[in-house]
Amino acid sequence: MSLLPYSNVQPEDLVTPKKAGAEEKLIIDTLLSLSGHPLRFPEVWRKKLSANFGTYVRGGSANHTLMAAYLGYMLAPQQDLGRGMTPREWWKRLLSWQMGEAGGVGDTQFFGDMELRSNTYDGWRIGSIAGVREIALRRLDHELIRLTSEYLTRYAAFLTLLAAPSWPQEFVHGRARVPYVAQSGARSTNMHYADDPGGLCLAELIDWPERFHPWPKPEKRMTYWFLMIFDRLRKVPLSQGIEKRYRNATGVSDENAALMRQAIRASDFAAFDRVASLLRTLDGRPLRFKAWEDLPFLEIRRWPGVVAAIHPRVTNGNTGAVMASVLRDDGRKVENVFPWSKAKPKEMAGARARFEGASIVFTAPDHDGSVPVPPAQPARVWRISGAGLL
Hints:
This protein is α+β, with helices and mostly antiparallel strands and 390 residues long.
């Protein structure tokens, strides 16, 4: 059972907010399209989807671009966007470039681009790609079936390295039964600690058996639209014509999903090693990640029952970042460092976080400080940098 089962909507169910922006309009049009209704804002996805991958060249968040591209593939997969580019070709290029194939412009060369981990936009990224997979499975679009499977497997692997098995009890009163993922990352904020889309999507991707969260309810379709995509995915008939290793619903094979669950549940470091190997190469090609030359995008350390991660330097100046996160498997205590009252680009440029002895030390204009980590040597250390996963 998915966290939020899909249900058809009627146009009257979706009230356009008075100050609706592109985000709300794209969600409304997605829900209308999935239910077979005409778009309310057909101009939005066309405006947001650029043949030259402009968002990835200029810099900035790709959340609107990805959802617009999802709508484009759903509604007009062969429509000319200019320069001979179509929504289907757009997805083929983006996913293959981000997974290390030759080519790429701007941030399309990096897996997850500049927002590899964002508790604000993980749902947009994962939901849009899962949505493309659902359509590809129905159309038997074998190239996009392959690409979405490989991408979503690696995204699940990345989130697994950051995950603890218990949702912190201080959020939603301990009632959630899904993995919790360290919050560190670009465009991550303190607004999403209790309903982080990364953890919710990971539970769906790896088929966490007892998954439950009290907030994704039917009346929250606008907020959690991306979770309904997984429910639709599981209802797609899987043709025998699909290559066996890609013949699964979410794109993550039963074997890999079981491996990721074992790693998270048991703090199984041998399993974590196998999961990490999925992020190093793909068919001999190294995955590349966006990072500053002198600092990794993320550094992850694991001890038995504890995971800590730092985002050493802000990589997206539009909003704040969670600079550090420390989780424990029992869900009893979590430390998240969001050191800004008002995150301004000039102030964020100087923020830093680092591991130092038995602490994570952080420096920011509004607040300096530290949070403790176990004093013992970590069992595993991973650095996600421009050179790959080290």
